[in-house]
Design brief:
alpha+beta, four-stranded antiparallel β-sheet, three-stranded mixed β-sheet, about 25% helix, 7 strands
């Protein structure tokens, strides 16, 4: 039997039952999850050498020195909420991702939080990022955010940083000069380093994002998790 309905009612129904179209993804995109206003994107970069500006360690002084340093595979996990960038975490690997369940490892950069077991562990410092990137399509904003991170000055005065932890892994990370010398000798040496396991997979990171935004049935279990949720609430919410 033929049925009739107003066009606007049909369109509302289609919007409810059909997933929204996928956005154009940036180069290196490996995994994407989305629920309601929350989007989680994983990007991978191959081994390469990068030039970093590193401070001698004293606050308030423009004493940055450039080092050419080798890196293994780098996995970036970026979270967007209501189309605006929220945070980025970084992990190392000695081989490319083959599955979302692959192990992730702590990075070794001073501007990355290093405490294991903490939700904020592996979170990169992106203070003073360009506000013009807010609301920009992923294909443009993600490469710009990653480039912005690498172009900033790296400070050695951050206690408990990822670099501090990684210095114990290999003598070639005893300091940035040692790291640069090892890079000149063998640019692929980071693929041989026994990086410290992060103890989290990509699906687990996604579940953490969902929990912090109240999208799971799991209750908040600590004041620290509650503080993270409150920090992410938009102004005037």
């Amino acid at each position: 039997m033929a049925r009739r309905a107003p066009l606007n009612a049909v369109l509302r129904y289609v919007c409810r039952v059909m997933p929204p179209p996928l956005p154009v993804l940036p180069p290196g995109a490996r995994w994407l999850c989305r629920r309601k206003d929350l989007l989680f994107l994983v990007v991978e970069h191959p081994p390469q050498c990068r030039t970093l500006r590193v401070s001698a360690g004293k606050k308030g002084e423009d004493d940055y020195q450039a080092y050419r340093l080798a890196f293994p595979y780098i996995v970036y996990a970026l979270t967007f909420y209501r189309d605006d960038f929220e945070e980025m975490k970084m992990f190392f690997r000695s081989r490319p991702l083959a599955s979302p369940e692959d192990s992730l490892y702590h990075p070794n950069l001073p501007n990355v939080r290093g405490e294991p077991g903490h939700y904020g562990s592996q979170r990169v410092c992106l203070r003073y990022r360009p506000e013009m990137l807010e609301g920009v399509p992923l294909a443009e904003s993600v490469p710009a955010l990653i480039d912005f991170f690498w172009s900033t000055g790296f400070n050695q005065d951050i206690a408990g940083s990822a670099f501090e932890r990684a210095q114990k892994l290999d003598p070639r990370f005893a300091g940035f000069s040692a790291w640069e010398a090892a890079t000149r000798e063998d640019p692929l040496f980071p693929l041989e380093v026994p990086w410290e396991p992060a103890g989290r997979t990509l699906p687990q990171l996604w579940q953490e994002c969902l929990k912090l935004h109240g999208e799971t049935d799991q209750p908040v279990s600590s004041a620290e998790e509650l503080a993270d949720i409150l920090y992410r609430l938009p102004v005037g919410y």
